[in-house]
Specification:
Elements lengths: L2 H52 L9 H22 L5 H8 L2 H12 L6 H25 L1 H23 L8 H16 L14 H29 L1 H4 L2 H17 L5 H18 L3 H5 L6
Helix pairs in contact: 1-2, 1-3, 1-7, 1-8, 1-10, 2-6, 2-7, 3-6, 3-10, 3-11, 4-6, 5-6, 5-11, 10-11
């Protein structure tokens, strides 16, 4: 992995870790539906402008079923779950629970793809579950049932990410940029009917508007482009390492910008979840660094 790729990787992790900060700042005021509709619409418009600049057309109707599956289960529904949870949980916990997606992906693969879970992966699942248990136990003591429901929402979102990762193995072959662009417009349509059901709670201020715009354009639209560039240059295995860095930035940004306390339970939970994810995915940092760069 080249220095440029390493810098892109760290930048992407810092952006995705920062997305939980913006959700914390806006979720209580806007509610989950308006927040996520604003996020995916901003991302879709951003990708539309980029596609116009690159003169790339989107065959939306030709792949409409595929785009709606990805848009719903990899974007709209998980984003809504995290937006709901952001009204209760801190950014650190959100980022840590987000990183459990590969754990769910491994379990779903064992059922759907008939992939056998090896001993190493099984140990990783136990570590990941232990990490979540540490977080759930602490949140139950401090926040009560509301905190538990928020954590369950995050885990449901992570499960959807795991489903989406397995779906892509059998999905129609679509270019990464078109996948991102088409699925964002599908997500816009999926979230739209929820707007009357979950109204805005407070007046929309300039800081809130800027937060949603940043969440959509930077943390979603541009972040997707960074991620797909990493996949193209260094392969999916190396790009996967961003999963392990996002919780670290989530904890860091939460402490720096929101004054969140970094407790022992947060550090222990993060360590267990990340270690479990490494074992389940079979990721090797040494191998990733030595991955040759493709033209």
């Amino acid at each position: 992995m080249s220095l440029a790729s390493v810098l892109r990787l760290v930048l992407l992790a810092s952006i995705w870790g920062g997305s939980f900060i913006f959700m914390r700042l806006t979720a209580n005021s806007l509610g989950a539906a308006y927040l996520i509709e604003g996020r995916v619409l901003a991302a879709a418009l951003c990708l539309l402008l980029i596609s116009c600049y690159l003169r790339r057309t989107l065959a939306f109707m030709s792949n409409i079923k595929h785009f709606f599956i990805i848009g719903a289960f990899n974007t709209a529904f998980p984003f809504l779950m995290f937006a709901y949870a952001a009204q209760t949980l801190n950014a650190s916990t959100l980022a840590i629970l987000n990183s459990t997606a590969p754990l769910f992906g491994a379990v779903i693969a064992s059922i759907w793809q008939k992939e056998r879970i090896k001993l190493k992966a099984g140990m990783g699942l136990l570590l990941g579950v232990s990490g979540v248990t540490v977080l759930v136990g602490h949140q139950a003591l401090t926040l009560g049932g509301q905190g538990v429901w928020a954590i369950l929402a995050c885990l449901a979102a992570a499960m959807m990410y795991g489903f989406s990762a397995n779906y892509t193995k059998v999905a129609p072959v679509v270019a990464p940029f078109e996948n991102a662009h088409g699925s964002m417009w599908a997500a816009v349509i999926v979230v739209l009917p929820l707007l009357p059901l979950i109204p805005i709670r407070e007046p929309i201020t300039l800081p809130i508007s800027l937060s949603v715009l940043t969440l959509g354009v930077v943390c979603t639209g541009l972040a997707y482009l960074l991620y797909f560039r990493l996949v193209k240059d260094d392969g999916p295995a190396s790009a996967l390492s961003v999963t392990f860095l996002v919780p670290l930035f989530g904890i860091l940004w939460g402490s720096l910008f929101l004054g969140e306390q970094i407790g022992l339970n947060t550090l222990l939970g993060a360590l267990l979840v990340v270690a479990g994810t490494v074992l389940v995915t079979g990721f090797s940092f040494k191998k990733a660094v030595k991955t040759p760069i493709k033209a």
